[in-house]
Amino acid sequence: MGTAASGLGRKTRRAATAEDQREGPTVKPVVLSSFQAALDLLDRAPSVERTRPKDLSKDAFSLDRMRALMDALGNPEQEVRFVHIAGSKGKGSVCEMLTACLAASGYTTGLYTSPHLLDVRERIRINADIISEHEFTRGLARVATAALAIRPAHGDATYFELTTALAFQHFRDMAVDIAVVEVGLGGRLDSTNVITPEVCAIAAIQLEHTQLLGDTLAKIAAEKAGIFKPGVPAITIPQQPGVLEVFRELAAAAATPLSVLKEDIDFSYRVEASPGLGPHVRVSLTTPQSAYEHLPVPLRGEHQAFNCGLVLAVLDRLRSRGFDATEMKVANGLKQTRSDGRMEMICTSPRIMIDGAHNPESLQALVRAVGGHVRYDSMVMVFGCASDKDIDGMLDRVALGADKIIFTRAAANPRSMHPKELHKRFVESSGKMADIADSVPEALRLAARAVGRDDLIVVTGSFHLAGEAKRFIRELEKGRAAGR
By C-alpha distance, which of 163, 151, 212 is closest to 47? Predict the structure, then answer.
């Protein structure tokens, strides 16, 4: 069943037919004349990502509309084999490592993640390639037509529902061998939860989106465990107190076989240093059918050890379902893992690193990882975050990790907390001084004036902020190149 990754494009593609639309209201097909027209259509759609929790409508989180949309498209999610990944921290890293390993094992592998850094097309990939503008535009027109057909009964499809449907449709049309899907928000009511995967996994659970998911770890864990399906193996890692109890209870209720790294699966890791890799983490996972021994974790930071362990455990379960993921191929795949937005150095003079850390634990892990992997004299942190995050917890980590702080906000995210409010709360809680910038470009210019050759600028707090920093640096470099 495995088709070599080099054969991408030679596989039989499923053509769009009239049968793709189930019987229902007749609507005029949506025509999108350009990729920009597709972007404009998405921008007009309701967006949970860009809406403050208190302003969300009651039907913002319901799978009824997503199921109806899938039905109108001929249920593409039923023709693709999936892996489903949830969690508060680390799920994106798990998705990237897993996709790289499956692609290196010879499988045409789809990947659906969110949010994106620069281009919405980054959310939908096959192996290392993002969906083309043509495929995105054509596919979205089909999805939008289906959304119009169900609109009288179910209301307007959201931005995330449209992109999720587009991804599932694209994976079906391209006849991928398997697709890795990252949960967008929570799990139980997330738009991606219309799939029945081969395996599901849950990374670290932490307090996040408390206005939407609940104000305790137990409530959040229950939402994440909503991806459990009868008979589908589920894997997780050691969690904070109370979380595993919720997982076990809900797994039993859903008839889901649940395994925990280090408890049910033999897993270990160690931190070491070598001339070739420098400081890094190595992981080992052993089962009756797999022996992944001392594999280097491709992403930096000790916190990535359990994320990599989840990847190996998922691959082990996939091997029992007919996938060939040998130790050597997996090791080669890990080496090819992309690190976009994860301790990514986007500029060398001055040194600017971006990271999408968006909760207190992620920030703490980031500061530790930077300290272990990057030499610097002083760290200037450009920070901004969404208003529904654990603000005080994040500001505590900022105070401990940075020598100088500049608060700003992502212009493209209405949920961003105003930098003046961040500054006020930071000064009140820490007693330290900080600066304010109205935009990411202004913050980066201010940071650049404050650093020397051996200092480091870290932009963090959200993927939106990281993406705007990366876009600004790219545009700056293009302008310099054009001027030469």
Answer: 163
Question: Residue 298 in contact with residue 97, Cβ under 8 Å?
Answer: yes
Question: What tokens were used for 164?
Answer: 């999720």
Whether 275 has a pLDDT exceeding 80, the answer reads: yes
Beta strand residue intervals within 88-167, DSSP E: 109-112, 124-126, 129-130
**Residue 371 and residue 275 share a domain:** no
Residues 224 and 97 in one domain: yes
Q: Hey, which bits of 148-264 come out as E strands?
A: 178-182, 199-202, 234-236, 258-260
Domain of 313, in residue numbers = 19-335
Peptide bond into 288 cis (omega under 30): no
Write down the pTM of the prediction: 0.91
Residues 306-326 pLDDT 10s: 999 999 999 999 999 999 999
| Residue 58, pLDDT score | 57
- Integer-rounded Cα Rg, in Å, for the chain is 22
d(CA 469, CA 474) in angstroms, rounded, equals: 9
Q: Of the candidates 449, 446, 445, which has an alpha carbon nearest to the alpha carbon of residue 435?
A: 446
In a domain, 2, yes or no: no
Q: What is the pLDDT of residues 103-115, one digit of tens each?
A: 999 999 999 999 9
Same domain, 306 and 348: no
One domain for residues 178 and 272: yes
Q: How far apart are CA 366 and CA 344, in angstroms?
A: 11
- Please provide the DSSP assignment of 418-476 as one string: PHHHHHHHHHHHH----EE-SSHHHHHHHHHHH--TT-EEEEES-HHHHHHHHHHHHHH
**H-helix or E-strand containing 284?**
strand 278-286
Amino acid at 202: I
Tell me the one-letter amino acid at 263: E
Q: Are strands 258-260 and 234-236 parallel, antiparallel or unpaired?
A: parallel
- Distance in angstroms (rounded) separating the CA atoms of residues 249 and 244: 8
Indicate if the pLDDT at residue 137 is higher than 70.
Answer: yes
Rounded Cα gap, residues 177 and 259, in angstroms: 25
Task: Tell me the residue type at 65.
Answer: R
pLDDT digits (tens, 9 = 90+) for 192-250: 999 999 999 999 998 887 778 888 999 999 999 999 999 999 999 999 999 999 999 99
The first and second tokens of residue 45, run together, are 């759609």
The string of DSSP letters for 48-64 reads STTS-GGG--TTSS-HH
Helix, strand or coil for residue 334?
helix
Number of domains in the chain: 2
